[in-house]
Design goal:
The chain has 158 residues and is mainly α. Helices cover 58% and strands 6% of the residues. Strands 1-2 form a two-stranded antiparallel sheet.
């Protein structure tokens, strides 16, 4: 971000007059007017209706210069490139939003699974496949004592 008198300047703020912007972009001021007429650039306007170009505008002008001079594109091609770049950026934003939403949903599902597991923790019985020993082999070898309470015959008469 550029500074002006010790303050930060927003790169979207119009600060350059057409002659300065043209010089920074390496082109003639009339070329900037042509680009504006084609809708490739939209400078801000001062109260006196003077065109004011931002740092972002100057960078866009340099990009147009690169596409037309170095890559041989015409202005229709440049327009299409900018349209596709805008679509691409919109899709990137949408993907980021969907990724955040998917992460929130994943967290909610994990929390719900944890809640259900806590709720049924004591109600669940481990599954044993058919034919599996009910008593682990190590316990069966030393013997298992199961206490049995028996009622005395006298208790049943009362």
């Amino acid at each position: 971000m550029a500074t002006r008198r010790g303050k930060d300047v927003d790169p979207r703020e119009g600060v350059y007059m057409i002659s300065v912007a043209a010089q920074l972009a390496g082109m003639h001021p009339q070329t900037l007017r042509i680009y504006e007429a084609r809708g490739l650039i939209t400078p801000k306007r001062s109260r006196g209706n003077t065109r004011l170009y931002s740092q972002q505008d100057v960078e866009r002008l340099r990009r147009i210069q690169q596409l037309t001079s170095e890559m041989g594109m015409n202005l229709a091609g440049v327009e299409r490139v900018f349209e596709l770049e805008e679509e691409l950026e919109a899709m990137r934003k949408r993907i980021r939003r969907l990724e955040r939403e998917a992460e929130r949903m994943r967290q909610r599902i994990a929390e719900e699974v944890e809640r259900v597991q806590r709720q049924f923790r004591f109600e669940l019985v481990p599954y044993r496949p058919p034919g599996a020993d009910l008593v682990p082999v190590r316990d069966a070898q030393r013997g298992v004592r199961i206490p049995i309470e028996r009622r005395s015959p006298d208790a049943s008469a009362s």
